[in-house]
Design brief:
The structure is a single chain. The chain is mainly α and 213 residues long. The protein has ten helices and no strands. It starts with a helix and ends in a 16-residue tail after the last helix. Part of the outer membrane protein assembly complex, which is involved in assembly and insertion of beta-barrel proteins into the outer membrane.
């Protein structure tokens, strides 16, 4: 119905509303490709529309839901081969909303979702670092953990990332880097549970970063 309305009145107010409704309808039906195409088209055609901030927000929601779909990945698949692209795309989409429309009513929720996504991306990096460590790929583990520390320094996952770095450098016989990592670790997490537990834990789903360990 909305597509027919737009075809009949391609430049009218009703057609613009129809374009909004089409994008939302595709989103609700979980047709992500069509939803994103409709959103991008609306933003391009109507950059000054009063509801264009909603379309930026909807673009983030579409990718955000795709990211949540990653939670159902097959556990036996090599996690190092997975790239949570949708997570990064969702973050970029919400950031565009926050940057362009800081006063939008959708911005507070977008900021909350961005915080969640940062933690999710950090937890994913640590998950992969742990995967490498458990398989004896200590250099890869250290490098992946270091990436997490550099990119997501405020995430709770950094505690384990630093621990994996220290353990990996120890396995590699690099005493200087091990001691550096351990010094930073103990300064920031003096009461860490990892000090008592030793080696990184068995693999657990990276997206359960909020769950009790």
């Amino acid at each position: 119905m909305f597509n027919r309305l737009e075809a009949s009145y391609p430049f009218g107010v009703y057609a613009q509303q129809a374009q909004l409704e089409v994008a939302y309808a595709y989103y609700k039906s979980q047709d992500q490709a069509q939803a994103l195409a409709a959103v991008e088209r609306f933003i391009k055609l109507h950059p000054n529309h009063p509801s264009v901030d909603y379309m930026y927000y909807l673009r983030g929601l579409i990718s955000f839901n795709d990211q949540i779909g990653l939670l159902n990945f097959v556990y036996e698949q090599d996690p190092a081969e997975r790239d949570p692209k949708a997570t990064r795309e969702a973050f970029a989409a919400f950031k565009a909303l926050v940057d362009k429309f800081p006063e939008s009513k959708y911005t507070p929720d977008a900021i909350d979702r961005m915080k969640y996504l940062i933690n999710a991306m950090a937890a994913y990096e640590v998950y992969v670092a742990r995967y490498y460590y458990r398989r004896g790929a200590y250099l890869a583990a250290a490098n992946r953990a270091m990436d997490a520390v550099r990119e997501y320094s405020d995430s709770p996952a950094i505690e384990e990332a630093l621990w994996i770095m220290a353990r990996s450098y120890d396995k590699l016989g690099n005493v200087a880097l091990r001691d550096d990592a351990m010094r930073v670790f103990k300064r920031n997490f003096p009461n860490s549970k990892f000090l008592d537990e030793g080696a990184p834990k068995p693999d657990r789903k990276w997206w359960k970063f909020w769950a009790a360990s």
